[in-house]
Amino acid sequence: MSEQFTDVMIVGAGPVGLMCAYLGQLCGINVVVADKSEGPLQVGRADALNARTLQLLELVDLFDDLYPLGKSCNTSSVWADGKFVSRQSKWWDALEGCMHKHFLMIGQSYLEKLLDKKLKDRAAPVMRSTSIANIELNEKGCLTTLSNGDRIQSKYVIGADGSQSFVRNHFGIPFEITRPQIVWAVIDGIIETDFPKVPEIIVFQAETSDVAWIPREGEIDRFYVRMDTKEFEMQEAIDKINRAMQPHTLSFKKIEWFSQFSVKESVAENFFVQDRVFLAGDSCHIHSVNGGQGLNTGLADAFNLMWKLNMVINLGAPKDLLQNYEDERKPVAQKVIGTSAELVRSTKFSESGTHAEDYVKIVERRAGNITGMGVRYGEEGLPGSRVFDFEIFDGTSKTRLYSLLDYTKFTLLVCGDCNIDQKLPESVKIIKVHPNKTHEGFWTDSKQYENQAILVRPDSYIQAAAPLDRIDSLFESSLFKVAAL
Ligand SMILES: Cc1cc2nc3c(=O)[nH]c(=O)nc-3n(C[C@H](O)[C@H](O)[C@H](O)COP(=O)(O)OP(=O)(O)OC[C@H]3O[C@@H](n4cnc5c(N)ncnc54)[C@H](O)[C@@H]3O)c2cc1C
Known about the structure:
Blueprint (H helix, E strand, L loop, with lengths): L2 E9 L3 H13 L3 E4 L13 E2 L1 H9 L3 H4 L4 E3 L2 E5 L2 E6 L1 H4 L9 E3 L2 H14 L10 E7 L2 E6 L4 E9 L6 H5 L12 E11 L7 E5 L5 E5 L5 E6 L7 H11 L5 E13 L3 E2 L4 E2 L3 E3 L5 E2 L7 H22 L4 H27 L8 H11 L1 H5 L19 E4 L2 E4 H4 L5 E6 L12 E6 L8 E2 L8 E5 L5 E6 L4 H4 L2 H6 L2
Parallel strand pairs: 1-2, 1-10, 5-12, 10-18, 22-23
Antiparallel strand pairs: 3-7, 4-7, 5-6, 8-9, 9-10, 11-14, 11-15, 12-13, 13-14, 16-19, 17-18, 20-21, 20-24, 22-25, 25-26
Helix pairs in contact: 1-5, 1-8, 8-9, 9-10
The structure holds flavin-adenine dinucleotide.
């Protein structure tokens, strides 16, 4: 039995716990991660990273490892009566301030394996085959007892331990579940078909819309088939696929993963309790897979939480900042659940009988959640919105804002000519971008933030903005003061 000290104990090394650990490492936060599984996921589960997640991955140098392995997809199509009756991608094409206007279709296991390896490379490997026996709060924070008897004393605990969360149950956090009695079969495999194969998300309209085809990385394709019962064989799902895509036929040469997914919906009452314990990912929000938002929302939780912990643990920011994690992320989770609930029900119930078309209309209406780009913290204006990406030149070489941002710091982005007399704290990186090509240093053609100064949070949302002639007002912003500590 040993006793170890750390800043943050993370329970669960699914994608969300792994991401919390990786971001913590980047920020210089000591973390211990324990997971009851033997290793990262090998097949199955989530299948798509949205545009906002791709931007966030770029911030922390994970994008280049993952992007080439996936397949881009930005089109939702409806197939009915033996033909395509609609094909839409306008909500992706209309996205501004981002370079990758599509989903990256890639299995969750690729992200988990990458993060697991990054943690090993940083000499902070996940403690595998280890579950949690107990967590006690004490004057130093949290004392976690592991299944092998070892004890970890930490300042904070993050419960990233999935939908059945030990941490959530242990702290009695209410999590009331709605069960709409909808069950999906999910099949990943290599197919053989005479259907005109396209890299699009296809919803098939028969009597209802109970089959969806999702393109995936490599040779794999995924099918979701609504079964409405838990008692079924895989062949029944394959028969439904064949009925939906008539006159074409499809069979599987190889099955990589076959599972069923019973829809459950819930948001935890609290994401932060007793000033010490956080929930993130599926431990605090679960919903249907429709819209592909579970993994993406959980990763965004991690990006929202870890910079705040960095400011509090390493830079002495006031602890109130931690409550802001729940204040910001709980409303997002509630909206995500609204989206997936509407989508999944439309596959079964439609007033006009045009389920698949209804589905695509809901995708269009709820595109902000599905692309991730509509998520903002605050009602209107620049503060609370994501900072747009744009091209920046440095002499002859071209880069982009997102490759210059640093997750461990705030960024003061100054777009135009302006002298800054204020001494900036170390936790604020300054990027000056001039409108004039002849200027030494960075310049841009973009008019996006012309003549403005933008204070960007570590997770690339805008904290405050001001015209250059009133840049001093930014230094009064409360989070600038946090950054200045
Ligand atoms: C079929 C299917 C398709 C999906 N498709 C999508 C999609 O397209 N897009 C999308 O965004 N999301 C999708 N999701 C959802 C996505 O998989 C989840 O939202 C995501 O895995 C949540 O990550 P997490 O880290 O919060 O939880 P999990 O992935 O559940 O990880 C929790 C981890 O905690 C560990 N653990 C649990 N209890 C303990 C304990 N007591 N002690 C130690 N360790 C513990 C588990 O072993 C696990 O590794 C899909 C899910 C399924 C099932």
